[in-house]
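thought: fold this chain, then report.
action: predict
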Amino acid sequence: MSETRREKDNLGELDVPASARHGVHTARALENFPLLGRPVHPELIHAFGAVKLAALRTNRNLGFLPDALKADALEQACRELMDGLLDADIPVDALQGGAGTSTNMNVNEVLANRALELLGLSRGDYAAVSPLDHANLHQSTNDTFPTALRIAAIQGLRELERQVLALQEAFQAQEKALAHVVKVARTELQDAVLTTLGRSMGAYAEALNRDRWRLAKAEERLRVVNLGGTAIGTGLAAPTEYIFRVVDELRDLTGMGLARAENLVEATQNIDTLVEVSGLLKALATTLVKISTDLRVLASGPEAGLGELKLPPRQAGSSIMPGKVNPVIPEAATQAALLAMAHDQALSMAAAMGSMELNPFLPLAAHCLLESFDLLARACMILRTHCVEGLTADEARCRAQVENGTAAATALLPLLGYDRVSELVARAAGRGLRAAGIEDGYFTAAQFDELTSPEAVGRLGFRKPRP
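observation:
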């Protein structure tokens, strides 16, 4: 049996592995919450390190941590937590009761025990360095957890914005590369008029640009934090000077434009800001599903489908059908986007169920929001690198559909008028619109080609055709 140490809290005593940097509060959480089977998001852990370091420095500057050796050890521990060196020591489940208290106490215990190590003292010697009296001095879960969550969310938001921009630029590159390929546009999955593949790619880029702009604006909402409000936003048990200085310290430490909420009580009660940000992620998810669906349909076939696009082959598509290659990247991106939509619903319900002075479901909100950032960023990345950057057009197939289908009929209206085009469509059955029109004297090959050229179908409106 491995060695243990005995720790106690207000519920009694409990054995903790002697080698563990966590303590009794974490041990109880591990027993109580075997739910998701995954620890809290690493960016939330790193953000907690920044919050704890800001509080430590503020308390130290105000004279509340006079022992320089202990304060130095705690500061190093906070920095290690920020840098991801202590991730393995934060094992509590991402889903937990208590509004995040288990996460905060896990962090406090790890910081205290790491500081004890640095001081050459035994883990669990909390009389020397205490998780509560030192690591958690003038703090509460109710102001540290929401603040750390917002810092982690800003990090996730910035990475997602970078990936959306990269995907947007990939579609813009394809807009130029495919500007010359005329194709059949479809409404309600029926042949409609002519367009170009370049225009389709440009539309995807513009939709993503709008999503990116929304994300950029959303950071402003996340910069307002309630650190210093302690339990319910009144600053209970914290000195006034600390309350007014700790967010400034955190802003300098993170380089983020953080600001203390004007109404700390309100900011501690409500998480509607997270709902707003999650809604923007849902908007991006819908864009990704729409784009991915279009790519799958345009690449369908290759013989019996539309087959206008050729997606990069990524893996064999079947264990029984030889040669089959599936559009696995758009499919995977779609699944990530759908899961982000589901996270938005769960987060919205968690926010709505907040009660009185606190929302007890912050761990669920944190998990859903931070995982959605990851899911969508990775979806954008694989869609760009494994699909969009390498897709090509089947130009011969696109041209054949233009010449043989009826979608080109609308392009002929300026030359022939509605009645004559209708007459031609009826006569062209089985021959193809272009061939029938030339054979029956409706237009010349040059006239048809001009009216269905990339320039003609791409411009806004039409120019009067030459006789």
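thought: worth noting. The chain has a mean pLDDT of 95.
final: tokens above.
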